[in-house]
Task: structure prediction
Amino acid sequence: MLRLYNFIEAKEKLGTVLNKTKLIHSDVFSKESGNEIYIKPENMQRTGSFKIRGAFNKISKLTEEEKARGVITSSAGNHAQGVAFAAQKLGIKSVIVMPKHTPLIKVEATKRYGAEVVLEGEAYDDAYAKALELQKECGYIFVHPFNDEDVIEGQGSIALEVLQELPDTEIMLVPIGGGGLISGVAAAAKLMNPQIKIIGVEPEGAASAITSLNNGKVVGLNEINTIADGTAVKMIGDISFEYIKAYVDDIITVSDYELM
Result:
């Protein structure tokens, strides 16, 4: 598993390409909860989400031979743009496979970063299968959106930034989709301060992490039903699962009504 120095190195590397997303104090949430609540606004990040962290960290660590082969991934949104941005920044080819129903604005945003976009299938699983097919056919390096330690390492830089700005943080609430974000944040935070509590949050209609924990192994959901499309993942990664078991204190689920 990753060590603290891995996250520190990732944070230093990412500092050259990231926007600074300073914590925002929420008066409303603080009053409602009776605690001091801060928000880490990663929606203000370049490409619009935290996904750039893991994508850039992963791609920057490729060998020159691997970079020459180019990278490929499957995504309907934020990860696509993170990979495309990182590849453009590092001067390598990127191919992004997206489901056919992906909103045009996301397709165009990905193309603006120089990526070749392939539209395939009606759902993410179709796009994923096509990406793997092209990887084998053309020799690309596949950049997984969450089940990869280099990606997890990049996402964990968030925790170091939070603790640098707010050292007395007691609890971090982290959303769970495939588990890459919470894996990195939980590991980095716990390695910095073992007393901090990490609580995962996932939708009732896509509770793949808590279902897997309850079964003692990674379990895929038969179906997912949530408005939170960024966390709508049928099965968390097996690497993420091990990090969640090791570092996450609790997982709670929320209804779509509560999400709204």
